[in-house]
Amino acid sequence: MVYDIEEDRVNKVLKVGRRYLTWIQNSVLEGEITDAKYEKLKYELKNVINEKTDSIIFYVNRTERYLRKEIIGQEKNRESMII
């Protein structure tokens, strides 16, 4: 999950996101969650953001088999579960 949120809502979005996913770096979270929790996460975020000015993007991979992650520079969080 990556997001671009107006400053007054950033902490609220991060707080909701961290209940379901792992914080990786500024405005980026990742993790493996069930479909039901994914729907709940989206519902909770929609209640926090302004859909006219804020943006949240989810990158969904059905399997880690086709995922490759490369990091250049400092890895902010070593956990590696992908949504």
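The above is record 1. Record 2 follows with the same two-line structure.
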Amino acid sequence: MPFNRAEIKARIDGDDLVQSYVHLETQLQPNGFDMTAGEIHRYKGKGKLDFSNSEREIPETEKVDTEKKNEADEYGWWDLEPGVYKVVMNEKVDIPKDVTALAFPRSSLLRMGCTIENAVWDSGYTGTGSFMLEVHNPEGVEIKENARVNQLVFFEMEEAGEGYSGIYHEG
């Protein structure tokens, strides 16, 4: 069963699950935790993927600049045309070996003609995650820095496994 708000908060208070969040009470949800956009990048080139990852190549990206709409804005906006982007979260996760997480786009994003593609967040993973944003709306979308764009739903596993040990691990 997924963790509820109180269980997520207790884990965060105990230095598990999520650090470097923007505003804890706003990001805590009944069944998950909202992750926020720290950077958005355009893909520059193609990637390569093989079975063993010995020939894997992650494509280069370039940071998309933000623009402030008025002088009173503390944060800028990304003005995104239809296409595929990489979003880097503000938050760092520290998923214990007895927990895993799944990520889903926020429904507000879906209502704007955008979605997020994400993978399983493995037990034992520590680091700042990123995911793919797809803008399908032919008019594009504007996203403000620190906007809540996706939600992690955490699940406790009955038996702790070895945990994540791939190249993206920061722990």
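The mean pLDDT is 92.
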